[in-house]
Design goal:
The structure is a single chain. The chain has about 110 residues and is mainly α. The chain has six helices and no strands. It has one domain. Helices cover about 75% and strands about 0% of the residues. Helix 1 packs parallel to helix 4. The longest helix has 24 residues. The radius of gyration is 17 Å and the shape is elongated.
Length: about 110
């Protein structure tokens, strides 16, 4: 019994949705009510936008590639697991990069 393409893509979409949710949860509410307190979050916001766009590109390309796949097999499952593992590290590297104001070593990790 093999997994259908639709189920495979639904699983991947669900994991990616969780990854994006974890990223947005890194935003902490500002301590003040002024515009300056929002401005202090600029590094996190920029890093979030960059990461969201990167994840969106991966997701869209994944869907385009799977238009060509006829049957999900073990190689597809392993390749997808490696992709999802890599994407699951993005919230950590995004937060680290933003909290350290895009220091060069954090950008390299990202």
């Amino acid at each position: 019994m093999s997994m259908s393409k639709e189920r495979f893509l639904a699983y991947t979409d669900a994991v990616i949705a969780i990854i994006v949710t974890i990223m947005v949860l890194e935003f902490k509410a500002p301590h003040g009510y002024s515009w300056e307190s929002l401005y202090e979050l600029r590094h996190m916001f920029i890093a979030y936008v960059m990461s969201f766009l990167a994840i969106t590109v991966y997701r869209n390309n994944h869907h385009h590639i799977f238009q060509l796949v006829e049957k999900v097999n073990g190689k597809n499952l392993w390749a997808n697991s490696i992709l999802l593992f890599s994407l699951s590290l993005i919230p950590f590297s995004t937060a680290r990069m933003a909290e350290n104001h895009f220091a060069s070593n954090t950008v390299v990790l990202y």
